[in-house]
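hiii so um. not sure if this is the right channel but i have a protein structure encoded as tokens and i wanna go backwards to a sequence. like what aa goes where. can anyone help
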């Protein structure tokens, strides 16, 4: 039976305001509930000690000849006992001089090992090869283009003095074109607060791929399309261990050269994250991890599919506004302001200098990336391979 005009307006109102409510929950209500829970259900501080476990830093690399030498130097130069620290580089079928450079360090230092994956399968497959071959009790995962602060490894392994800790994430700071860390953006500070709250509950969801660590015996091979810096720590959570944030373990990377490069990176990650996260719901329920399940759905699943909510709110508000619904006309106008502000912040250099416009551009970019990622997933076009991030290129 066809809907009447009143029924169509009601359906549009329910869909539009429901989609907006989902976005409000994801970005505002969930963090507030999480912070409140952190204050009433804090499980206790992680016990840190001065123990120095053996550490292997595993780097997955594809055509990183311009960065891999500096990465190895930076790692071997860490303020950590040299006899307890070594490096494994997994070359994912590199076609440049990456293998030659790594082999040279292996000969000269005795603390570097080169593995080669054939054929090229992506970072997660490379880690499946490199981690089992590592000898350290703690495995540090990082990127070839990341630069550790001198004390990063020392800080990163500190929480492992607590036997309940299974994985630790460090803190990634992006270097701006001026050379300083980009820690002033509203979104960066927002994400850091959410991470601190999850860490205080010993259930940090996802690590910084630039710098994180796991106990070697907790590692489980992952699917080549899995997002490694989410799946590997999450497996530690499923095994009953805590996953925490150590902000003293700092890694630096160059910021993406503009929102377009960041958009491409988000599409690549989101298209792989959605099926992975959905596949984790049942195992999480089976292990009775109710808190983690709530976090998984609220912080990750709904965030990754947020483009659906943006699109639903826009289409439903337009449909209802065309039928004279004043509240939906107001909602449509508000969305128009947000999207116009985002376009200005994205495309106009002078406008991009204004913080509100930069924030609007960021949200618009994430919404578009979410929609594009869902299309890639639905059409089976998800790829596990990656391109090395370059400040002068279009990004990962």
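sure thing!! here u go:
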């Amino acid at each position: 039976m066809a809907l009447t005009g009143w029924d169509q307006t009601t359906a549009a109102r329910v869909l539009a305001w429901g989609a907006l409510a989902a976005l409000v929950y994801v970005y505002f209500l969930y963090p507030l509930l999480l912070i409140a829970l952190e204050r009433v259900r804090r499980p206790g501080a992680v016990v840190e000690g001065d123990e120095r476990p053996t550490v292997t830093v595993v780097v997955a690399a594809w055509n990183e000849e311009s960065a891999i030498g500096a990465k190895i130097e930076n790692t071997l130069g860490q303020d950590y006992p040299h006899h307890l620290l070594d490096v494994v580089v997994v070359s994912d079928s590199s076609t440049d001089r990456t293998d030659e450079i790594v082999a040279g360090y292996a000969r000269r230092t005795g603390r570097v090992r080169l593995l080669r994956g054939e054929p090229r399968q992506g970072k997660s497959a490379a880690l499946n090869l490199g981690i089992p071959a590592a000898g350290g009790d703690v495995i540090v995962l990082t990127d070839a283009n990341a630069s550790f602060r001198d004390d990063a490894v020392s800080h990163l392994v500190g929480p492992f003095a607590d036997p309940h800790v299974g994985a630790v994430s460090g803190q990634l700071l992006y270097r701006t074109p001026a050379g300083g860390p980009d820690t002033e953006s509203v979104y960066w500070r927002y994400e850091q607060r959410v991470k601190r709250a999850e860490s205080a509950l010993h259930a940090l969801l996802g690590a910084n791929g630039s710098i994180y660590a796991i106990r070697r015996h907790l590692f489980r091979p992952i699917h080549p399309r899995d997002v490694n810096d989410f799946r590997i720590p999450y497996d530690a959570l499923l095994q009953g261990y805590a996953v925490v944030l150590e902000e003293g373990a700092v890694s630096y990377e160059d910021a993406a050269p503009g929102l377009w490069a960041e958009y491409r990176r988000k599409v690549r990650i989101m298209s792989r994250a959605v099926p992975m996260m959905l596949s984790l719901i049942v195992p999480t329920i089976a292990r009775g991890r109710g808190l983690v399940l709530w976090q998984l759905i609220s912080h990750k699943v709904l965030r990754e599919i947020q483009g659906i909510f943006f699109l639903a709110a826009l289409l439903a508000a337009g449909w209802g506004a065309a039928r004279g619904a004043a509240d939906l006309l107001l909602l449509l106008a508000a969305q128009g302001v947000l999207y116009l502000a985002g376009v200005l912040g994205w495309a106009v250099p002078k406008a991009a200098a204004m913080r509100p416009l930069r924030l609007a551009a960021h949200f618009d970019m994430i919404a578009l990336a979410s929609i594009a990622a869902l299309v890639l997933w639905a059409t089976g076009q998800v790829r596990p391979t990656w391109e090395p991030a370059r400040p002068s290129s279009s990004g990962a």
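oh and Residues 67 and 145 are 6 Å apart (CA to CA).
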